[in-house]
Structures are given as structure tokens and as C-alpha cells.
């Protein structure tokens, strides 16, 4: 790894205090020298969520002291404004935005989808992404530099995994979750051409079947204390995000980077 290539940059990763893509991205960008704004509160609140966030912040501070944790529900406009204003007050900028906070995946018959779940699945992906990008753009335009990365979904891989049994008839599907991810992906396509002149790139990451790993395990791999496993994991996604944040990727925008993960290794 090329250390400290993101020195001086501030990265905000929504939904980043559990194990998975968000937390591993925070660990990876911190390893590269970025100031980190951790976020929770969209799906998980309360004491347990606060303890998870504090534990991850403690891990990051072992090698990068520049980390701030903010509880904010990205579906709430005022919470997002607080999230960005607190980050700006601490670090003076928000240069990198990773829209990772999302809804819940429940495969079900379309006619059985409850309105409450539809809102829970779609609002973090659509409204949350909208609110965060709207706050980020003025800061990035002023500096004429920015990276926006939306975590979406490799729908083709998902469909293959759901229908991997021969002659399988797909009668249940996470319709609302998939709709939200597709809308989020399309938002990138809409805004990226006009923001490129400000030095802002906007890209989508489309993960497929990604193995889980603990934050401690991710850190050991990042620090070279453990070998990567045969199967793809959140660190593979995080390293792709780190590349998109770098100067080497300044010409890449309006792109969909598919990371199908482990389905093809299992068939």
C-alpha cells in the first residue's frame, strides 16, 4: 500500500460503524491518511450503536488520530446539515463522500410489501444520498476538488444468486431494495457530467456477493499482518473506493464499477 496518499483530505462515510463495506472503507481511507467522519443513526440508534461506533473510532485512532463520529439519520434533512457542519467545523472541509447508508434487504412478493418497509428500504438510499450530495457539492465546488462514491448493487449477480438452482422460478425478490439502489445509481449518471468541471468525480460501486469480516481482521490485512483470503471481502471494495479517491483516478467519473464478489467462485 502507498501510505498517506490522502493526507489533507476529509472523508465522510455514511453508515460506517458496523462491520462491512462502510467500516472497512473508513479503516482503509484512514490508513491512507484521510481525516475520517464516521456516521451512524440511520438504521441503528441507542446505546448498542453508540458502543459499536466508539469501538471502531478507538481502532482507527491507533494509527490515525483525525477521526470524528457523528450520530445522524441521513433521511432527516436537519441531521444531514448537522453532520456536514460538524465535520466542517472539525476538519475544515468534506472532500470525499461515500454514500453507504442503506435500507434493509427482504425478498418478498411484491404485493406483500408493507409501506413502512418500502420507506425504510428506499429513503436512506434515495433521500439520504440526495441530502448528503446537496450538502457536499458547495464545499467541493469551492475547493474545485471532490470525490462522491455511491454504494449501489450488482443486480445481475444478485439475480444469478437468487436463481442459481436449475429451473428455479423467481417468485420473491427484494423489489424495494433493488429499486432504491438503481435510483441511487441513476443519480450518479445525472449529476456527474455537470460537476466534472469543478474537479468533482462521482462514481458507483456495484458490489455483489461479498464475504463478511470483522473490523479487527480488516485492520490486520490493511497493516500487512494477515494475508487476504481466497474469497472477496469488504476490503476489496474499500481498496477500489480508495483508488477512486486518489489523484490517479481524477479522470474517472460517471462509471459503474462492478465487484461481483464470490458468486463466480462458487459455481
Q: Give the CATH superfamily.
A: NAD(P)-binding Rossmann-like Domain
How big a fraction of the residues is strand? Answer: 15-25%
Distance between the termini: 31 Å
Number of helices: 9
The shape, in one word, is globular
Given as residue ranges, the uncertain stretches (5+ residues, pLDDT < 50) are none
Number of strands: 7
Biggest pleated-sheet summary: 7 strands, parallel
How is this structure best described in words?
This protein has 267 residues and is α/β, with parallel strands linked by helices. The protein has one domain (10-266): NAD(P)-binding Rossmann-like Domain (Rossmann fold, 3-Layer(aba) Sandwich), CATH 3.40.50.720. The protein has helices spanning 21-31, 47-60, 77-91, 115-143, 155-162, 175-195, 215-222, 234-245, 263-266; strands at residues 10-13, 35-40, 67-71, 96-99, 146-151, 200-209, 256-261. A 7-stranded parallel β-sheet has the order 3-2-1-4-5-6-7, sandwiched between helices. Strand 4, helix 4 (115-143) and strand 5 form a beta-alpha-beta unit. The longest helix is centred in the middle third of the chain and has 29 residues, at 115-143. It is globular, with a radius of gyration of 18 Å. The chain starts with 9 loop residues before the first strand and ends with a helix. The model has no long low-confidence stretch (mean pLDDT 90).
